[in-house]
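Quick log. Single chain, no ligands specified.
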Amino acid sequence: MPTRPEPSQPDDSRVLEPVRVLRPRRTDALAELFREFEEDARGRAARESRGYEFPTVSRPHSGPEPETQELPPVATGERYASSRVRDSGRRRRRAAVAIAVTAAALGGFAAALLLAGGKESAEAQAPAPSATAPAAPAEPPTEAAPTEPDPDPDGPGTLREGDNGPEVTDLQQRLLRIPNVYENGSTGGEYDARLTEAVARFQVWYGIRGDESGVYGNDTRQSLESRTSGD
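-> predicted structure:
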């Protein structure tokens, strides 16, 4: 640790001067700006006094300037008060409408609950059907009316394959009298396939068209009987 010198002894050490820190202030920059502005103004005045003309700077013309739109006037005084009254009235009407809609929805829901409850209570109070109640008498079944057979398109008394009896025998005997129609045919009374071919052959040879092919109908009967009645 250094010791302080005696008062009688000279101090040969270097004297330290205090360090001064200079900080720029905002006012200094503003003062410098004003100073430059004053110097430019003085120089401009001196040049004008000597007859110096400053060049004019032409700005590029970009067409007609657009029309400016005026801002809406600011509501003040009574106008501002009236606008506030209108806004408050609108809010009140909206609130009233919302309340009315909510009340209507709640009323409808309550009415539906009351109707459902009333229906259930009515069903509960209704007497149950008695198990011993007499049953309604059953209606007797109606008898179906007998259906009449459809009339034969070839006329009544028509004979076809599968029939038998004396009428078939009479047909066989008459066909034997027609040449080359039913030669050596049977007369046993059975309407078989051979007899069907003989009837169809007779119909073709003699131009009979009113009956089905191979079926002994009215037209075929009349034609055959007319040709064998005198034999």
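The helical segments are 26-49, 78-125, 166-176, 193-205, 218-228.
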